[in-house]
């Protein structure tokens, strides 16, 4: 069975975006060669990408452009060629290269995808989708990059909509020179493994 991994950039107070959708806080860090190498390695690690509609439209408006290819050529190449899924109730077609549209409720569609053979499924951003799938117990690993920024009431908390808590186990951590902190967690009920 494939694993469903959520990769999220978060603020120190657990927000995935500003209340107005702003993500500028995630790009305010100084350049860090170690962080850049990590991002590139993550892009090279394989897997099929999963997005919610809002993140998909943001990514699809950037990565296929000549500017993306000029500024981050290897990352742009990976993003454009890797298989992708977009979960949406309102989108009518997926126009970005190698993208399959998953219409309707995301949880049953992704649960079915997890049972199919193939590589891991990696959700990038897509805070509302991650929150819904966390509620359904479908996420196997959370890779959370904590940025040293707090948004307070101006932010959308990733786990704010959960109606029950989650018990997680830390499996990995890493500090970067730009102040970012990677924290990887697995749900306790899955952490013990076979």
UniProtKB/TrEMBL annotation:
Record-linked Gene3D superfamilies: Dihydrofolate Reductase, subunit A
SUPFAM superfamilies: Dihydrofolate reductase-like (SSF53597)
Limits of the Bacterial bifunctional deaminase-reductase C-terminal domain: 4-181
InterPro entries found in the cross-reference section: DHFR-like_dom_sf, RibDG_C, Riboflavin_Biosynth_HTPR
Pfam families found in the cross-reference section: RibD_C
Stated name of the protein: Dihydrofolate reductase family protein
Originating species: Rhodanobacter lycopersici
């Amino acid at each position: 069975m494939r694993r469903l991994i959520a990769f999220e950039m978060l603020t120190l107070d657990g927000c995935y975006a500003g209340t107005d959708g702003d993500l500028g806080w995630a790009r305010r860090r100084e350049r860090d060669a170690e962080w850049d190498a990590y991002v590139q390695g993550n892009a090279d690690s394989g897997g099929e990408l999963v997005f919610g509609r809002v993140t998909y439209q943001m990514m699809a408006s950037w990565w296929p452009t000549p500017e993306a290819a000029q500024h981050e050529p290897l990352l742009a190449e990976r993003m454009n060629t890797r298989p992708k899924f977009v979960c949406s109730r309102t989108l009518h077609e997926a126009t970005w290269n190698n993208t399959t549209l998953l219409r309707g409720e995301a949880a049953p569609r992704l649960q079915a995808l997890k049972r199919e053979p193939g590589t891991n499924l990696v959700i990038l951003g897509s805070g509302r989708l991650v929150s819904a799938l966390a509620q359904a117990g479908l996420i196997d690993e959370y890779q959370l990059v904590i940025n040293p920024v707090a948004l307070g009431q101006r932010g959308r908390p990733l786990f704010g909509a959960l109606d029950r808590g989650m018990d997680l186990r830390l499996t990995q951590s890493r500090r970067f020179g730009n102040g970012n902190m990677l924290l990887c967690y697995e749900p306790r009920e899955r952490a013990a493994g076979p």
